[in-house]
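Section 3.1: Structural characterization of target chains.
Under the original work plan, the team committed to producing a structural model for every single-chain target entering the pipeline before any wet-lab resources were allocated. The record below documents one such target. The sequence was received from the expression subgroup and is listed exactly as submitted; it comprises 70 residues.
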Amino acid sequence: MRLEQSIDCPDCGTPIAIETRALMEGASFACGTCGAEISMAGRAGESWGAAQAKFAALKADMLKAGEGEA
């Protein structure tokens, strides 16, 4: 699933198209007007990755538990 959104450039206000997942995984996106770049700060991407992994494990556990009820 692609989660495309836009963020206004902090320098000139032009919308910068971003892919949320790519941003969270450490990608940076540049403004087509002034060249300013947007990226996640420091360890925020790592935190998101860990949360995503925990969610995937929880989802798998719930699906497995649901199969036992059928």
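The radius of gyration is 17 Å.
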